[in-house]
Structure to design on (890 residues):
């Protein structure tokens, strides 16, 4: 089999990765540190959005806990990557057994992801059997619980106080590499047997069960994989921002990631990528406006929340007018597939989200 | 009274009706016969406003009803008793009936209607305060029809009322339908029980895979149409 | 220490949580919508009280009524503008929309008022207590219990004696069939949102009555309670909501006295662990409605 034929099924992720690399190169060439920063964060966000897509796109269930696992990954990874001195400096109350732990960057990241995945496995297993609505609600509760624990477990997380002194290991190209790997991983998951089975049970639970698909197990595996990605993404983010609090892993971030996914299109990997790009750009513009207004001191109490209000309105509009997002359920391809029979179009346009 | 012209309807990508035209005149008892999947229930759904057809027209008393919502169509006087009865299990019999009369605002009329219903369905009077979910299949079917009658419909549509009922109850249901017909209620009946249906109806439409295959009086159909063929999938020699 | 004061406290909390859960379930029962913006209705009630009690000479009872009305109208408004257009699309779309509305309202409050907490002037009665059987019981608790009993009675009356109530219950059973009987979908849904708003408004009075402050994010904790209580109770029945509310209040109150002091701040986490265990054995919740939520596995 020649190379082209081998690569054909990977058409979509390759196309997406090509786009990612182009953006990264442009950012690198621009040379402005602000742009580099924005693009680096964008790629970390992309990783998180892809992680969410893996679960939500295939199982059809909203996962509100995603950012919570990002937080777990963040805190865990810094516990390993920081030197003992740095740790004690930021958190004098840290458990003694945690102080001497010290590993290089990459293992720390992976451990962060693993811890998130294991926790996800334990917490979520009983929740996988719930009806769809109850499942969504409980993921929200999981988010809040994680937040409560992060906020109050001073001896590990430094509580509500800032945890500072993290080494800035995450560079532009670090985040690019991870974004690329994640793109492939999520796409391959989608096309894998697990992904297929999950989508089958999303579409028709009983039919899927009747051919032996264990929906609970499939959901559970997807949830763990999603949490792993979130955990690693959290570690990446922690080592970019170098100081953070538990408030960085709560409702606002959940909202932003969700907006990125839904605007792009939750049912395709391309949707995740496209959405992240567009929303990042929009956010920067909106934030710039917000800052400008704040400088002008037009509002005595400060001009906050403008970005979120606009994003929320846009999200609602998308849901009303194009609920499947910009990409619909389509994936990007380097050479667009020939449109098949009309039946396919009708299926896609039947309006089901 | 009711006129369907070249109705096309689909569920997502699946075409269910491919050009259905039927008429029902005032006071008639018309039946739609056919196997599962022929499109009978879909036709009723289109009329009731639950599934909007993407092509064709539906005229009710000379006014178009395509695109109207189910509640608007109900208020025009079209009542549908769906397959599976769809009575409200957590409401009592009385509450089910009360809701059936939603489109009627007159208080005295309500009591009068109720009395008529008890005439036709004595068992419902007995079970008035019981919750719908505790009724037997036959009783639920009676409740569903009674509920539809509470609104004094101009057109009553019944989707497989005899489905899943014991033979004695099937007799009861068909007797009831015949009696309603005698009283002048216009009825559009969807059924799979060909034999009993042909005994009581004025006209029949025979449906197959989304189209009307043949139509006529029960006499005509018995003679000319290949009912067996449609149901069994085997064609008689030398037939349309 | 489990004494009379503790028990009255717990019952008062249970009544509050029951009302909270009811407001959520009434919408879920008909629309299958989990309304994330429900918490923000409490925020709206709170800010109404802050503005009216702090800046106008209106008597407190009037302020309270207006707060409830504010929550109700906000609820109706969000239905009209955000949920109605998405209603036909899909449940997921509605859910995300409700989350978007929630974020929108929170940040609108942030934008328009302030990120800082605002003190709400409370009526005298919320700060006084009365002696019952030798223990000092805050009037606030008694009022909570009393109000919830009244609301439960009113709601039951509405649902059982009025045509609208019958229509609401029917819609929860089978929405399409209800429409086919001529009941306008919009009427039923608006009624449900109105009731939900009223419940939220009343809860806001007593919720803020405990802390005397309001912030843009004050909606999140009660939302969580409502969520967990409804899931415990079984999501489909109003009885379930009430039971869920009381179970939640009982567990969290017990945790409050049983947990060692250094673990107290993790009360909610323990509560949730408990809930997970309940769900492990009964994914459908404690009370199964006539037609229960489907179990998946």
């Amino acid at each position: 089999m020649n190379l082209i034929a081998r690569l054909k099924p990977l058409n979509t992720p390759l196309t997406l990765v090509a786009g990612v690399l182009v953006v990264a190169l442009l950012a690198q060439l621009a040379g402005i540190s602000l742009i580099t920063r924005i693009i680096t964060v964008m790629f970390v966000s992309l990783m998180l959005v892809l992680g969410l897509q893996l679960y939500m796109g295939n199982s059809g269930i909203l996962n509100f806990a995603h950012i919570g696992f990002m937080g777990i990954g963040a805190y865990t990874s810094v516990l390993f990557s920081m030197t003992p001195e740095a740790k004690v400096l930021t958190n004098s109350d840290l458990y003694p057994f945690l102080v001497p732990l010290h590993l290089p960057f990459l293992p720390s990241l992976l451990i962060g992801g693993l811890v998130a995945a294991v926790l996800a496995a334990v917490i979520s297993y009983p929740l996988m059997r719930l009806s769809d609505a109850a499942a969504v609600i409980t993921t929200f509760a999981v988010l809040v619980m994680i937040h409560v624990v992060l906020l109050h477990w001073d001896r590990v997380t430094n509580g509500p106080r800032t945890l500072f002194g993290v080494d800035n290991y995450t560079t532009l190209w670090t985040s690019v590499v991870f974004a690329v790997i994640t793109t492939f991983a999520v796409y391959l998951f989608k096309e894998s047997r697990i992904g297929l089975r999950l989508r089958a049970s999303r579409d028709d639970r009983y039919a899927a069960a009747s051919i032996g698909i264990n929906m609970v197990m499939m959901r559970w595996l997807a949830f763990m994989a999603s949490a792993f990605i979130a955990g690693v993404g959290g570690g990446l983010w922690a080592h970019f921002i170098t100081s953070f609090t538990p408030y960085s892993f709560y409702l606002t971030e959940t909202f932003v990631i969700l907006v990125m996914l839904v605007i792009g299109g939750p049912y395709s990997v391309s949707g995740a990528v496209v959405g992240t790009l567009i929303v990042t750009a929009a956010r920067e513009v909106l934030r710039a406006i917000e800052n400008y207004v704040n400088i002008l001191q037009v509002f005595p109490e400060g001009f906050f929340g403008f970005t979120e209000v606009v994003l929320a309105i846009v999200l609602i509009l998308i849901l009303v007018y194009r609920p499947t997002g910009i990409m619909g359920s389509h994936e990007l391809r380097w050479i667009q597939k020939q449109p098949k029979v009309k039946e396919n179009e009708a299926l896609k346009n039947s309006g089901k989200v | 009274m009711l006129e369907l012209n070249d109705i096309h309807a689909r569920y997502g990508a699946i075409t269910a009706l491919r050009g259905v035209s039927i008429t029902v005149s005032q006071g008639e008892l018309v039946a739609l016969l056919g196997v599962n999947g022929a499109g009978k229930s879909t036709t009723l759904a289109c009329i009731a406003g639950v599934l909007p057809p993407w092509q064709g027209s539906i005229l009710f008393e000379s006014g178009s009803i395509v695109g109207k919502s189910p509640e608007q169509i109900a208020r025009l006087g079209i009542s549908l008793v769906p397959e599976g009865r769809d009575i409200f299990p957590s409401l009592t019999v009385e509450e089910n009936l009360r809701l059936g009369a939603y489109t009627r605002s007159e208080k005295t009329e309500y009591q009068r209607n109720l009395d008529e219903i008890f005439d036709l369905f004595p068992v419902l009077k007995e079970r008035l305060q019981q919750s719908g979910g505790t009724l037997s299949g036959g009783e639920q079917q009676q409740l569903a029809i009674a509920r539809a009658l509470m609104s004094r419909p101009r057109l009553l549509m019944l989707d497989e009322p005899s489905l899943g009922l014991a033979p004695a109850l099937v007799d009861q249901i068909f007797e009831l339908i015949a009696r309603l017909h005698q009283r002048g209620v216009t009825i559009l009946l969807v059924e799979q029980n060909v034999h009993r249906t042909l005994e009581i109806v004025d006209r029949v439409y025979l449906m197959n895979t989304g189209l009307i295959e043949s139509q006529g009086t029960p006499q005509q159909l018995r003679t000319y149409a290949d009912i067996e063929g449609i149901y069994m999938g085997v064609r008689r020699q030398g037939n349309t | 220490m489990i004494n009379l004061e503790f028990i009255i406290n717990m019952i008062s909390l249970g009544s509050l949580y029951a009302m909270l859960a009811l407001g959520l379930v009434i919408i879920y029962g008909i629309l299958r919508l989990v309304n994330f913006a429900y918490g923000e209705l409490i925020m709206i009630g709170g800010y109404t009280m802050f503005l009216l009690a702090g800046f106008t000479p209106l008597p407190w009872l009037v302020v309270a009524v207006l707060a409830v009305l504010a929550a109700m109208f906000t609820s109706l408004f969000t239905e009209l503008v955000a949920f109605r257009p998405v209603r036909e699309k899909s449940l997921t779309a509605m859910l995300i929309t409700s989350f978007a509305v929630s974020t929108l309202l929170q940040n609108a409050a942030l934008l328009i008022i302030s990120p800082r907490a605002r003190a709400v002037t409370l009526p005298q009665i919320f700060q006084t207590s009365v002696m019952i059987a030798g223990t000092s019981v805050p009037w606030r608790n008694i009022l909570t219990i009393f109000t919830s009993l009244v609301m439960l009675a009113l709601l039951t009356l509405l649902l059982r004696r009025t045509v609208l109530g019958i229509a609401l219950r029917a819609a929860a059973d089978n929405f399409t069939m209800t429409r086919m009987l001529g009941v306008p979908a919009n009427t039923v849904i608006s009624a449900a949102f109105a009731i939900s708003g009223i419940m939220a408004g009343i809860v806001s009075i007593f919720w803020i009555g405990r802390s005397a402050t309001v912030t843009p994010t004050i909606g999140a904790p009660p939302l969580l309670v409502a969520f967990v209580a409804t899931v415990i109770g079984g999501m489909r029945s109003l009885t379930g909501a009430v039971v869920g509310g009381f179970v939640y209040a009982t567990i969290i109150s017990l945790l409050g006295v049983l947990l060692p002091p250094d673990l107290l701040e993790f009360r909610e986490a323990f509560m949730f662990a408990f809930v997970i265990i309940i769900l492990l054995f009964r994914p459908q919740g404690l009370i199964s409605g006539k037609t229960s939520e489907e179990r998946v596995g």
